[in-house]
Structures are given as structure tokens and as C-alpha cells.
Amino acid sequence: MAFYRKNIGGLHQAVRVAAGLAVVVAASVYLTGAPAWLVALGGAGFALTGLVGYCPMCAMAGLGRGGMS
Predict the structure, then answer these.
(1) Taking the chain, what is the end-to-end CA distance rounded to the nearest angstrom?
(2) 3 is in which domain, residue-wise?
(3) Is there a contact between 7 and 66 (Cβ–Cβ < 8 Å)?
(4) Which residue range or ranges hold the Inner membrane protein YgaP-like transmembrane domain (predicted)?
(5) What confidence tens digit (pLDDT) does each residue in 28-43 have?
(6) pTM exceeds 0.70 for this model
(7) Would residue 67 count as lying in a domain?
(8) d(CA 42, CA 21)
(9) How far apart are the C-alpha atoms of 64 and 39, rounded to whole Å?
(10) Could you report the per-residue pLDDT of 10-63, keeping only the tens digit for each?
(11) How many CA atoms lie within 13 A of 60 on its CB side?
(12) How confident is the model at residue 69 (pLDDT cuts 50, 70, 90)?
């Protein structure tokens, strides 16, 4: 039983995971201290939405797999 409906497609998921991981790596290389942790946490969250295939912000905006729902 799923508690959510996937609202992003396969290519969008892959791009989110890659971009999220790139942000985490860039934050760890170029930033230090609290800003590094905050930016890396944001990147990890972005990658996580790609892994599960559900974006809460897209759902609030009414965007689904086929564009506007």
C-alpha cells in the first residue's frame, strides 16, 4: 500500500538524484561549517525526492507526471 502517488517521471528522478548528489559534493568541497551542512542537507533532500519519485512541492503546485493535473 503506497501512501503517496509518484508525481515525477524517470528522467526527472535521475536528474534530481544527480543534481542533489552534486550539491552535496560541492558543499563538502567548497564550504565549511554550518553553511556546508545546510547546503548538503538541502542537496540530500533533493536527491531523496528523486529516489522516491515524489516531490511535495510539485504536488502542492498541482504538477504531475503528465504536466499540469
Answers:
(1) 23
(2) 1-52
(3) no
(4) 5-65
(5) 999 999 999 999 999 9
(6) yes
(7) no
(8) 10
(9) 27
(10) 899 999 999 999 999 999 999 999 999 999 999 999 999 999 999 888 888 887
(11) 3
(12) very low
Q: Flag whether 28 is in a domain.
A: yes
How many structural domains comprise the chain?
1
Task: Show the cell assigned to 45.
Answer: 533532500
| Main-chain dihedrals φ then ψ at residue 9, nearest 5 degrees | -80, 180
**Residue position matching grid coordinates 536528474:** 15
In order, the DSSP letters of the chain are --SS---S-HHHHHHHHHHHHHHHHHHHHH--HHHHHHHHHHHHHHHHHHHHT--HHHHHHTEETTEE-
Instruction: Please report whether residue 65 resides in a domain.
Output: no
For residues 27, 12, 10 and 20, what is the CA-based torsion angle, rounded to 10 degrees?
Answer: 10
